[in-house]
Amino acid sequence: MPDNERLNSFLIERRVTTKELAGKLGLTHAAVSLIRSGRNRMSASTLSKLLEVFPDMCPKWLIKGVGGQSCAANCAQQTERVDTSKDEEILLLRELLQTKNQVIELLTKEKSMAK
Asked: Is the pTM here over 0.85, yes or no?
C-alpha cells in the first residue's frame, strides 16, 4: 500500500478532512489534496509536521507500511510476544533507528535545498 493510501486510511479513521489537515499542517488545501491523491509525495518537513500533529501515528508504518498505524498498537504487539529473543529485539531497534535516521536525512536534505 502506498504511503498516501496509509495516510488516507489514518485520516479517514480519525475523521480528519483535507481542509482540517491543511490547517493543522500549515499547507494549502490543494497541496494536501495532491499528497492524498498520490500525485505529490510528502516533503520531509510535511512528514515531520504530520508526526507532530499526530504523535500516535507510527512513522515506520506510514513510511514503510510495517506494523500498525498507531505506535501504541505496535508497542502492544511487541509486548505480547513473550518468546522474543534478544537478537530479534536488537534487529527491531536497529530498524526503528534506521527509520528515524531516514526522516532526519530527509529533513536535512530539505533544509539544505531551501537555502
From this structure: no
